[in-house]
Write a structure and sequence with these properties.
6 helices; 159 residues; globular; mainly alpha
């Protein structure tokens, strides 16, 4: 097993724990514009499509905007937690498919990483806002930058 691909699935999964759709949107964008990144599994080929790339970017942008609202349920509640875990599984499976590995292993790595990162980021954000004067929206914006920038960085490093 190539440890680079495992690390990529692990990191993209964790970034899905910060923002559900950012890693998926960045990965789909990369799949559209980098000929060396192609999904091998037919069930995951939708990630290569222009329509999915556009839709995921629009949804990710909406998620970033909505996250700043105080009325949004906590990410550790069942809906947010399951979405982030599924997104982590998807990006992990995709990375393993690209590299002709067993997609279930990538899905497991991505999902586990997303699950752990969801809880870690939730409680870290709560602790920072409780112990500093930094507004929650500022911490959320830092998370946005980490989720999007980290996704780009890990995919650039995996090329």
């Amino acid at each position: 097993m190539n440890s680079e691909h495992t690390k990529t699935a692990l990191v993209l999964g964790a970034l899905s724990g910060l923002r559900t759709l950012s890693a998926t949107a960045v990965l789909s964008h990369y799949l559209r514009y980098n000929s060396n990144l192609k999904i091998k599994n037919r069930r995951l080929k939708f990630l290569n499509s222009a329509g999915f790339a556009l839709l995921s970017k629009l949804l990710a942008t909406g998620e970033i905007a909505i996250d700043k609202s105080p009325n949004i349920p906590d990410r550790v509640r069942p809906g947010g937690l399951s979405g982030r875990t599924l997104s982590g599984a998807l990006v992990g499976a995709a990375i393993y498919s690209i590299n002709k590995r067993r997609i279930w292993k990538g899905a497991l790595i991505g999902a586990t990483s997303a699950l752990a990162a969801t809880f870690l980021s939730f409680y870290t954000r709560k602790q920072i806002t409780r112990n500093t004067r930094i507004p929650d929206q500022v911490i959320g914006t830092v998370e946005d930058v980490i989720a999007v920038g980290g996704s780009v960085a890990v995919l650039e490093g995996d090329r």
